[in-house]
Design brief:
single chain; Rossmann fold; 14 strands
C-alpha cells in the first residue's frame, strides 16, 4: 500500500519541523512538504500532489479561510484538516472552516510548553484523521463482546427487527466528525413547541462546544445551550454536552436533571455518547429515541444496545450523507438501527416519531 502524502501548512518553523519529525515514523504517511502560509501552499499543491492538507488556523498575512476556499475550489476532493488553537477566536474560525468544507480539525499543542510525548499524541491523532479521510484504514477488528464489523454491504440488511414504536419522550443525539454541519442542518428543523427535550454529545473541546451551542441557538427555534449541572430538562430545549465533560441524565421523582462530570474518557472520548445514551436508557427506557450521526469510531454503540434492549428506538445517518460512517455504521451493522436515513430524512423522521402518538391522543 502506497503512503499517503501530507502537506503541512503552519506558520511556525518549529512546529513544522516538530510535526514532520513526529509523523515520519508512521508507515502509512509521508510528509510531502510544508509551507509557512497559504500562498506558498497553493503554489506547492500542484507540484507535490498531496493526499491531504493540514492547515493552520493562525496563518500570517493571508486568511486561512481564503486559503481553504481556494483549495476547495481548485481541488474539491482534497481533504483539509484544520489545526486550531484552544482560543475562542480559533474555535470560531474552525467552525467557519468546517462549514466551508474542511473535513476535520485538531487542537494543536503549544509548542513552547509541549513535551515530546504530547506532540507524539497530537501527531498520532493527526495521522489517524488523515488516514480516515484518505480511506486507508481497514475496518477495526472487534474487541470482546462487540459484533463483527462487516465490510460495506446493503444497509437494508442491517435494519433491526420490526417492532411497534413507543412514544418518544427524549431525543438523544451523538455525533463526531462532520457533526457540527450535520447538527446545523438537523436541529433548525424542530419547532419551538417541540414536545420533548433534546440531548446532544458532539466530540469537540470545551470552547468549541460553547460556540457551537451559541451558533445553533441563533439559528434554531428550540432553545439551545451547553448542558450544566442540575439543569432540569424541558421540552423545546436542546443541550450540548460541554467539551471535556461527560453529560448524563438522572431522574429524581418526576424531574429529570442533567449531570456533568469529568470522569475518565470512554471510547477515548470525553464527552462520550455512550455515557449519555446509557443514562437515557436507564431514565427513559422504551420512550428513548437515539440518533447516531456522522462520526469516527464506535462511540454510541454500547449505549444504543442498551436503548434497544430497553425497547427504545435507534435511528442512524446513512453512509452517503455522512462525512465518516464510523459511529452510525457500527450501530447499523450491529443490527440495532430501526432505520438508516439520509441527513435530509432524519429531521422529518424524528419529528414524526416524536409527535405521532401525541397527535393521536390530542
Amino acid at each position: 500500500m502506497s503512503k499517503k502524502r501530507i502537506l503541512i501548512v503552519v506558520d511556525s518553523v518549529v512546529m513544522r519541523r516538530a510535526l514532520t519529525a513526529a509523523l515520519a515514523p508512521n508507515p502509512g504517511l509521508e510528509v510531502a512538504g510544508s509551507a509557512p502560509n497559504g500562498r506558498v501552499a497553493l503554489m506547492k499543491i500542484p507540484l507535490l500532489h498531496p493526499d491531504a492538507v493540514a492547515l493552520d488556523i493562525e496563518l500570517p498575512q493571508d486568511d486561512c479561510l481564503e486559503t481553504l476556499e481556494a483549495i476547495r475550489t481548485a481541488y474539491p476532493q482534497l481533504p483539509v484538516i484544520m489545526l486550531s488553537a484552544a482560543t475562542e477566536r480559533a474555535a470560531s474560525v474552525t467552525l467557519d472552516a468546517l462549514t466551508m468544507g474542511a473535513k476535520d480539525h485538531l487542537v494543536k499543542p503549544d509548542i513552547a510548553t509541549t513535551m515530546d510525548d504530547t506532540l507524539q499524541v497530537f501527531s498520532d491523532e493527526l495521522a489517524s484523521k488523515i488516514a480516515i479521510h484518505c480511506s486507508i484504514v481497514p475496518y477495526a477488528k472487534p474487541t470482546s463482546g462487540l459484533p463483527v464489523f462487516l465490510p460495506p454491504g446493503d444497509p437494508a440488511l442491517c435494519i433491526a427487527a420490526g417492532r411497534p414504536a413507543m412514544r418518544a419522550d427524549v431525543v438523544a443525539i451523538g455525533a463526531s466528525v462532520g457533526g457540527p454541519n450535520a447538527l446545523m442542518n438537523l436541529i433548525p428543523r424542530f419547532s419551538s413547541d417541540f414536545p420533548v427535550p433534546i440531548l446532544i454529545v458532539q466530540h469537540m473541546p470545551a470552547i468549541f462546544t460553547k460556540l457551537l451551542a451559541a451558533r445553533l441557538a441563533a439559528k434554531c427555534q428550540v432553545h439551545v445551550a451547553e448542558g450544566s449541572l442540575d439543569q432540569v430538562v424541558m421540552p423545546g430545549h436542546a443541550w450540548i454536552a460541554p467539551g471535556d465533560l461527560h453529560m448524563s441524565v438522572e431522574r429524581k421523582g418526576d424531574v429529570v436533571r442533567i449531570h456533568t462530570r469529568q470522569g475518565l474518557p470512554v471510547n477515548s472520548c470525553r464527552p462520550a455518547v455512550d455515557v449519555l445514551f446509557r443514562s437515557v436508557a436507564e431514565v427513559y427506557g422504551a420512550h428513548a429515541l437515539a440518533v447516531v450521526m456522522t462520526g469516527m469510531g464506535q462511540d454510541g454503540f454500547r449505549g444504543c444496545q442498551e436503548i434497544n434492549a430497553a425497547g427504545g428506538q435507534v435511528l442512524v445517518q446513512d453512509e452517503a450523507s455522512s462525512v465518516v460512517w464510523g459511529m452510525p455504521g457500527f450501530v447499523a451493522r450491529g443490527g440495532i438501527a430501526d432505520r438508516i436515513l439520509s441527513l435530509k430524512q432524519l429531521g422529518p423522521e424524528i419529528v414524526s416519531r416524536v409527535w405521532s402518538q401525541r397527535m393521536e391522543k390530542a
